Amino acid sequence: MTTRLAARATATFEPVGRSVASARAFVRDTLQGWGSTEITDDAVVLTSELVTNAVVHAGTSVRVSCLRTDAAVRVEVSDRYPERELPLDESEHAPSSPEREGGRGLMLCAALASRWGVEYTSTAKQVWFQLDVDEPLAGTRTAGPVLPVDDLPLAAESKVRVAVVQIDRGGSVSGWNDDAREMFGYDPEKVLGKPLGELAAWPHTPGTGTGLADALRHSRWEGSYGIRGSDGRVIPVYASHLRLRDSAGDPTTVCLLVRDRERAVLQTPNRPAAQDPAAPAQGEGGRAGADPFDAFIGSPAPDDLDGLLQRTVERARDILDGDAAYLLLATDDETELEVRASTGLPSARQRFARVPVETGTGRYGSARMPAVHEDLTADPMAVPLLAATGMRSAVTVPLKVEGRLTGSLGVAAESPGRYTNEEALRLQFAADRIALAVESARLGELERLRRGSLSFLVEASDLLAGTLDRDQTLALMAQMTVPTLAGWCAVYTLAEGADPELSYVLHEDEDRIDDLRALLARIAPPEPVLSPGARQWSAPADTAHAAALRTSFRSLSLGTAAETVPSLATAAAVGGETVVLPLVARNRVIGLLVLGKAADEHFRQEILELAEDMSRRAALALDNARLYSERTAISQSLQRSLLPPGLPTVDGVEVDVIYRAAGEGNEVGGDFYDLFPIRDGAYGFAIGDVCGTGPEAAAVTGLARHALRLLAREGFGGPAVLERLNSAILDEGSRSRFLTLLYGELWPQPDGSAVLKVVCAGHPLPLRLRPDGTVTPAAEPQPLLGVIEDLELYEERITLDPGDVLLCVTDGVTERREGTRMLGDEGLTDVLATCTGLTAGAVAARIMRAVERFAAEPASDDMAILAMRVPAQRNG
Q1: Of 344, 345, 427, 480, which sees the most CB atoms within 10 A?
Q2: What is the arithmetic mean of pLDDT over 111-122?
Q3: Who wins on pLDDT, 708 or 311?
């Protein structure tokens, strides 16, 4: 039997990297069109290797020819570099080993092809391979030339039967012809009135609920499923469904069914694309009927997801002569589809608008199968994305990878009835070709988002944990979300029993912050709801658009169009999707985080989930800042209550005090001082240090200060006052703390001197500075308070002459450290010796300055300095 050429296709490709992908697509499309699907993968692999070799090593244009005969397919790859030798192993004159780069294509030819070879001419070098094909099965659709009758394959049966089944609006069988009875074994009276779903074995996609009834709601649909015959066996069928209206105007569906192996009887063939007049003729570097969807392959790069999707919708719209096109991708949890690219639709329908996947009212019911919608006015929610867009007809196809829905591609037109099953099949073919590349890019994008989300949350947690200041926490919350997550942000805080209060506003355009704050101030705040998750809030966008319309109308009436600019710009800046996230901490709503987009923009689901995670961390940080602020305020208030509200004026004696509390202000210190009148002309003074800090120390401090005043004013002398205070401290039991205390009484004298009686109970000794710079201790040490019961204390009398200074400090001054060095009593004495001639306030200030400069680190203990000076007498 002689070999006869049945078909030929040729294409020429430029010497660039993307030509390899285009060549693969050319061979795949050609062989699939010829029905040679069983050898398509091998042919594509071999073509890829040979074209790559030619592009890399020859650097000339490459011509690929596909030739089909009765029993084989031959693919020829020719370049314009006849002098180039094949990369062969020099010793074996055979293809090189797998470890070497050269000759790999020839190794594959030897392994996969039934025949292969190399031919040289004066102008070109050609590598070819041949793959044998089996005889096609009955019903196989081909794109080859018309064959003689004798060459047509035999049908499995002498008669091809077409079952005609009519379905009413409820999905029940209302018509059943003779071929249906012969194919499935049911008499009409057995099936009329029964739902077709009871007879159908519908191939469900795992994890979905899409059924035959959903398919029958489409205007047109073709596909394979099974019908259970009367003997219980499932008969695979190929069916074409057309939705019509009966004489009463009710919807009805006519189903044409054939055995699945005879699907060519019903299957809509691919319509050949129009030949570009400017393109080369077949055999001259082009190929007739080239699929325009070739543009999808290799351009843009697969990792450029947005570019790939946008190019896809533009080509889909052009090829099907549509007015609009769109592409949706599954969200991370694959429960919704979101718009990732569109053309010809209002901008509000573009980026990241979402629709649920599962079927039902208002849901995207046609997502899982190809569908043709002849008139969307009959069922506006068949494609919710096209509602109110002016589109009347649409064709939609799924993007699936390994049976899993990953997206949907649709083309729409403004006139009804524009599309048929033929366009649906062409669009599905294109979708199948790009589905894997899109899914790979989508998964890569999700992985980058996950990694970015983790980095974002780690950084956010570090920043929020680094402050306990409420205002700084609010600022961080806003600055972390803008512009990373949203175009603008507002934070409302919520005090117990009060309405939400607008606390912080931020916009990515700093010039819009004041306008945004003014806009939100006019709107009632969102309702605080404990339920987690983001909820939409339309008030900002609605108010901004309404204000822009009013301003525009007023400006046009007055002829001052320039006044419309701020309002219109504000409407554009906040006119997109706005969501509210509750700030929940310790099972209580403490605020609201509002995130917004610019006009006609939507949030991605992944971004909302990330914002929800961030809001939980921010809520806890904000509540911690609130608790810290409350604790600090309480501590500071308690600290103030333990110190005198002011110092009385003592005639003839200068008195000044400096007090520094250590720490961050959230703990009550144990140091205290006091100066108070006892009786006419006499004053009591004290400076003390309670062991430790916190509430227990504060209790002893309060007890000591108030007991000193009370006992002194009752007429008790210094030793008696301290002995009774010691007993009161010991009566506190386990709550008691030991206390060092310097207590004294002061009597200014008419001659300008001052008499002091002091008791130093375990406290750093007071120092006396004379006008000549001499510094001496002014008292003897005695036991501290709060340790033993039977204290026997005594007082010492001191006379301060004019010019003398008495300095009293707590141990935070003398124990100031820098590494192993400590200021100590000697260091304090040296500093005091330099203070001759200074007032009491100047002395206290110089001592404090010297203490602070002694070490670079902040003080770790409270410090109190009490300075008393008798002014020097003036001559004359």
Answers
A1: 427
A2: 84
A3: 708
Residues 6+ apart with CB under 8 A from 308: 296, 300, 301, 302, 434, 437, 438, 441
**Per residue in 161-197, is it b (16+ CB within 10 Å) or e — as a string?**
bbbebbbbeebbbebbbebbbebbebeeeebeeebbe
Interval 390-415 mean pLDDT: 87
> Angle 476-481-482 (CA atoms, 0-180°, nearest 5)?
100
Domain end point (choices 604, 633, 662): 633
Q: Which of 342, 329, 349 is nearest to 408 (CA)?
A: 329
Question: Tokens 């069922």 correspond to what residue?
Answer: 379
With both helix axes pointing from N to C terminus, report the angle between 605-641 and 470-481 in degrees, rounded to the nearest 10. Answer: 170
Report whether 266 contacts 240 (CB < 8 A).
yes
Q: Are 185 and 229 in contact (CB under 8 A)?
A: yes
Cα(357)–Cα(281) distance, rounded to whole angstroms? 45
Task: Check: CB of residue 601 under 8 Å from CB of residue 485.
Answer: no
Q: Does residue 692 sit in the same domain as residue 794?
A: yes
Domain assignment present for residue 150? The answer is no
The top-scoring range by mean pLDDT among 71-85, 625-639, 774-788 is: 774-788
Using 50, 70 and 90 to split pLDDT, how confident is the model at 845?
very high
Domain of 176 in residue numbering reads as 163-265
Q: Which distant-in-sequence residues (6+ apart) come within 8 Å of 110 by Cβ?
A: 95, 116
The predicted model scores a pTM of 0.47
Residues 659 and 572 in one domain: no
Neighbours of 856 (CB within 10 A): 7
pLDDT score, position 276: 37
- Look at residue 600 and tell me if it is in a domain: yes
Mean pLDDT of the 401-430 span: 85
Co-location of 628 and 651 in the same domain: no
Measured distance CA(532)–CA(529) in Å, rounded: 8
Give the chain's domain count.
5
- Alpha carbons 811 and 853: distance in angstroms, whole number: 17
Q: What are phi and psi of 382, to 5 degrees?
A: -60, -40
pLDDT single digits (tens) 369-385: 788 888 888 877 778 77
Residues with Cβ within 8 Å of 548's Cβ and at least 6 positions away in sequence, in order, are: 564, 567, 568, 570, 571
Q: Is residue 662 within 8 Å of 860, Cβ to Cβ?
A: yes
Are 700 and 786 in contact by the 8 Å Cβ rule? The answer is: yes
657 and 801 within one domain? yes
- Cβ pair 61, 13 in contact under 8 A: yes
Please tell me the least confidently modeled range out of 178-192, 362-376, 427-441.
362-376
Q: Could you tell me which of 379, 376, 385 has the C-alpha nearest to residue 356?
A: 385
Q: Buried (b) or exposed (e) across 442-471, using 16+ Cβ within 10 A?
A: beebeeebeeebeebbeebbebbeebbebe
Shared-domain flag, residues 244 and 298: no
Q: Indicate if the pLDDT at residue 9 is higher than 50.
A: yes
pLDDT over threshold 50, residue 277: no
Residue with tokens 């603008």: 488
Q: Is the peptide bond before 525 cis (omega within 30 degrees of 0)?
A: no
Q: Output the CA torsion 292→297→300→302 (10° steps).
A: 150
Is 622 in the same domain as 651?
A: no
Does 302 sit behind a cis peptide bond, omega within 30 degrees of 0 on the bond before it?
Answer: no
Q: What is the mean pLDDT of residues 801-811?
A: 93
If asked whether residues 428 and 322 sit together in one domain, one would say yes
Instruction: Tell me the two tokens of residue 2.
Output: 């002689």
Q: What are phi and psi of 491, to 5 degrees?
A: -120, 125
User: Which of residues 851 and 434 earns the better pLDDT score?
Assistant: 851
CB atoms within 10 A of CB 18: 15
Give me the CATH number covering residue 830.
3.60.40.10
CATH number for the domain that contains residue 226: 3.30.450.20
Encode 124-146: b = buried (16+ Cβ within 10 Å), e = exposed.
Answer: ebbbbbbbebeebeebeebbeee
